[in-house]
Design brief:
The complex is a heterodimer of chains A (191) and B (214). With 191 residues, chain A is of the alpha+beta class. Chain A has 5 helices and 11 strands, in the order ααβαββααββββββββ. Chain A has helices spanning 6-9, 11-24, 35-47, 73-78, 81-91; strands spanning 26-29, 51-55, 59-64, 96-103, 108-109, 120-126, 139-142, 148-150, 157-163, 168-171, 183-190. In chain A, helix 2 packs across helix 5 (81-91). The longest helix of chain A has 14 residues, at 11-24. Chain A starts with 5 loop residues before the first helix and ends with a strand. Chain B has a single domain, classed as Jelly Rolls (Sandwich), CATH 2.60.120.620. Chain B is 24% helix and 31% strand. Chain B has helices at residues 4-9, 17-29, 44-54, 81-90, 93-103, and strands at residues 35-38, 60-63, 67-71, 112-119, 124-128, 135-142, 154-160, 163-171, 178-182, 189-191, 200-208. In chain B, strands 1, 2, 3, 4, 5, 6, 7, 8, 9, 10 and 11 form an 11-stranded antiparallel β-sheet that branches. The chains are: A alpha+beta (191), B alpha+beta (214). At the A-B interface, strand 5 of A face strand 5 and strand 8 of B.
Chain lengths: 191, 214
């Protein structure tokens, strides 16, 4: 059974999506995974042990990497043939490095002036039901001239965004309105 | 030292020689880096006037990876009489000398940054050290009363190898509290998120080091 919504595996649709991505440098594919596959992944992810990463002037969040174990839902998705084809079609590249990130109250990342992130393509797969933009905790890209792009926090959505030279991403501070909830998403960098 | 100007603006308790010596000692021995909070520091009537004057100023909402808050422009060119006079007091030779006496730091007598800030529900300023453009002392005059459970506190971080570790001191905003700290490579601090539907209003800025006249 395919993991991915058949709309996104259709060649014609994929071609239109590629056009949007090339023009707008960002595209969000809603209801990306088949419902059953999405909930299976969420169920797995919710049980994953997360490690706290804290460096006050740079970041505070929890994360997990999944190594080479091919039998977990996370790696099974990343190794999925159809997903690889979609990424290749849209970005021209195949290899992704991914980790699971979790942002709850008081968690954030700050752009690090000392280690400037190079331009590139990021892929975000959102796995959180009921996370509101007003809670913060969302991926934001800024260009240094006051322009910003916020990645929508919509569950079961895959967003691909291309950052040009001088554009940097951060995860906005998650505020108290999240009320104990955590924003879980997979962040992949296409390499 | 001419104390007439100081007597007009400050709580007279704080300009007594003995008190100033003790404040200096407190500042020198403070942790995690040189800092101080002085309650009822200014003439309270003046603070009310400043608060009232500030309510007529325009606050711009600003957000970045580091903060979410509202600020006025620097008051260098303000047309508001009260704020203009207060700024002139802060940069007066008498007050600069006073700050030098209580901190043992040498300050630029020609340069000050001074603006109003407003933090509302969910606003914050994340951990940073303030080092920029010759800043020597960062200062805040709180014009609102907060309880620590309401957020909005100025948290100061301990450090190791010039990197911040954890917040070990918390300065709670209280009306007419004057808080300041020496800007250095370890002056890591944050403004905790405001978690209530309340306005945290303050004026503040930086005194600069000698030679920084740009």
């Amino acid at each position: 059974m395919s993991k991915i919504n058949s709309f996104y595996t259709d060649k014609n649709n994929l071609s239109k999506i590629r056009e949007v991505f090339h023009n707008q440098k960002i595209v969000s594919l809603q209801q990306f995974l088949e419902k059953e596959e999405y909930f299976k992944l969420v169920k797995y992810i919710e049980k994953v042990k997360l490690k706290k990463e804290f460096h006050p002037i740079h970041f505070s969040y929890c994360s997990s990497e999944f190594g080479n174990n091919k039998n977990n839902e996370f790696n099974m998705l990343l190794e999925d043939k159809e997903l690889r084809i979609i990424i290749k079609e849209l970005t021209g590249m195949e290899k992704v490095e991914a980790k699971l990130l979790s942002f709850g109250w008081k968690e954030y990342t700050i752009i690090n002036d000392e280690f400037v992130e190079s331009s590139g393509i990021d892929i975000i797969i959102d796995l959180t039901e009921g996370w509101d933009d007003k809670f913060g905790g969302c991926v934001t890209v800024i260009d240094g001239e006051g322009n910003s792009t916020k990645v929508p926090c919509t569950p079961n959505t895959l967003t691909i965004l291309q950052r040009a030279e001088g554009e940097h991403k951060f995860i906005k501070y998650a505020n108290h309105l999240c009320n104990g909830k955590k924003h879980l998403f997979i962040l992949c960098q296409v390499v | 030292m001419t104390k007439t100007v100081l007597k007009y603006w400050l709580n007279p308790e704080y300009i007594k020689e003995e008190r100033m010596k003790s404040i200096n000692k407190q500042f020198q021995t403070s942790k995690p880096f040189h800092n101080l909070e002085l309650e009822n520091f200014f003439n309270a009537n003046m603070c009310n006037k400043i608060l009232n004057a500030l309510s007529k100023e325009k606050f711009d909402f600003k957000e970045s990876d580091l903060f979410q808050l509202s600020q006025t422009e620097d008051m260098k060119n303000t047309k508001n009489k009260v704020l203009k006079e207060f700024r002139e007091f802060l940069i007066s030779k008498e007050f600069i000398k006073y700050m030098e006496d209580i901190t043992s730091l040498k300050l630029n007598k020609n340069k000050i940054d001074f603006a109003g800030s407003l933090y509302q529900d969910t606003d914050y300023l994340l951990c940073h050290d303030d080092r920029l453009e010759g800043r020597k002392i960062a200062f805040l005059i709180y014009l609102s009363d907060f309880e620590d459970r309401e957020g909005g506190c100025l948290n100061l971080f301990s450090s190791k190898n010039n990197l911040p570790e954890k917040a070990i001191k918390s300065i709670v905003p209280k009306f007419n509290k004057f808080a300041f700290f020496e800007v250095s490579n370890i002056s890591f601090h944050e403004v905790e998120e405001v978690i209530v539907d309340k306005q945290r209003i303050a004026v503040g800025g930086w005194f600069h080091e000698i030679g920084d006249d740009q």
